[in-house]
DNA sequence: GGAGCCATGTAAGTAGTTACATGATTGA
DNA sequence: TCAATCATGTAACTACTTACATGGCTCC
């Protein structure tokens, strides 16, 4: 990773949009759906971002309309330009910003962890739910049954790679939760023992 | 997790600030440092957020000044109030927002994955660097050598729990990268073989 | 009495979300 | 022909970051 030379200054979201257009000329809505299906878990794209960014990319000459939009609000297909492809290649070789995580459940665990094991247990249960939800999103990246062809084409790129990472990540987190849960159980058992000792004495 | 009953409407960052004050009465700067040391990896707190939020928490009656600030810009210590403690307890029992991840390197892998294995290899190398950097942040949560007592007290809560999670998380990610790297190597080997076949024929 | 860090604070900007408005298309 | 859904778009807001300003403290 080096030479951020002549990189246009775009947000990662804009680069992702350009990336989807590099796979196939498509409309904003199609991009939105493809992004939702294939990478929502690791980079969300909302429609409030999408349309302004499309216009911005067009202004920069990185994409262009493919055919005419029939009306003021009818479907407009976009295609990547040569300079768009070049820019995308450069972006792929440039330094990435560090992974950012915002994990409220974990923050709670931090503050609860010193206190009641009960609460920690409940928070770990919640965490399990959060991550099984997360796994559902991941599973949607590569559903067992076949997709309509259009959607398949739209989520080209390397869905299997993201899928493998997502699976690895969720499974590993689930394992950690199980470990912590048995730790909690043990600490409760110990407390019980101590209590019983006190009773006897 | 249930009853979000009478929860004041605060951002998770504000809750975290309140959480730190529940461990110990302290100044903004101390909170900033404790947050940086103990939970930066999973929830960053910046000073542009901190001071306005302190004032906001005070307006809500969840914290109060502990002693007087000597001057307009001198150290001010804050302490949590009873209603602050009650609110914090309620927050700990309330539903957490889902884990949010923004992972630019993974987005690049998605778009690179279908194309050149070389590029995928470089991106995996970058990922390794990103996560070994991440691990350094985690390691700072529980440094082998002892901390000044003040800092220890400030990062009470359950640093070991966050540490264990962070370690588990980074190790597991590193393992995945290794797997993917050998996958890349294999695909390069296959390509080579095919090439050799063509040469022979 | 000045260098450098400690500490508080703010202004400006960034990147994003949600909720809504509206037009176009489809199909019962 | 009406309802639902597809598709584009925007306004208002939210949470947050960076960079800077400034004052206070310490120690030589």
From TrEMBL, chains A, B:
Pfam families: PadR (PF03551), Vir_act_alpha_C (PF10400). It comes from the Bacteria. Residues 17-89 form the Transcription regulator PadR N-terminal domain. SUPFAM superfamilies: Winged helix' DNA-binding domain. Residues 101-179 form the Transcription regulator PadR C-terminal domain. InterPro entries: Tscrpt_reg_PadR_C (IPR018309), Tscrpt_reg_PadR_N (IPR005149), WH-like_DNA-bd_sf (IPR036388), WH_DNA-bd_sf (IPR036390). This is PadR family transcriptional regulator. It comes from Nonomuraea typhae.
């Amino acid at each position: 990773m080096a030479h951020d030379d002549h990189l246009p200054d775009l947000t990662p979201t804009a680069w992702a949009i350009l990336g989807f257009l590099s796979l196939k000329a498509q409309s904003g809505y199609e991009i939105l759906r493809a992004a939702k299906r294939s990478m929502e878990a690791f980079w969300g794209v909302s429609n409030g971002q999408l349309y302004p960014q499309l216009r911005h990319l067009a202004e920069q000459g990185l994409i262009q309309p493919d055919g005419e939009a029939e009306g003021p609000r009818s479907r407009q297909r976009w295609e990547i330009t040569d300079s768009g492809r070049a820019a995308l290649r450069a972006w792929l070789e440039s330094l990435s910003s560090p992974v950012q995580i915002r994990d409220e459940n974990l923050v709670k665990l931090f503050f609860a962890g010193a206190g009641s094991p009960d609460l920690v247990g409940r928070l770990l249960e919640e965490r399990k739910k959060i991550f099984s939800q997360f796994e559902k999103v991941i599973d949607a990246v590569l559903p067992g049954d076949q997709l309509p062809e259009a959607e398949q084409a739209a989520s080209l790129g390397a869905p299997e790679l993201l899928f493998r990472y997502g699976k690895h990540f969720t499974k590993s987190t689930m394992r950690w939760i199980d470990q912590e849960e048995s730790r909690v159980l043990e600490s409760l058992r110990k407390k019980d023992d101590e209590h019983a000792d006190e009773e006897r004495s």
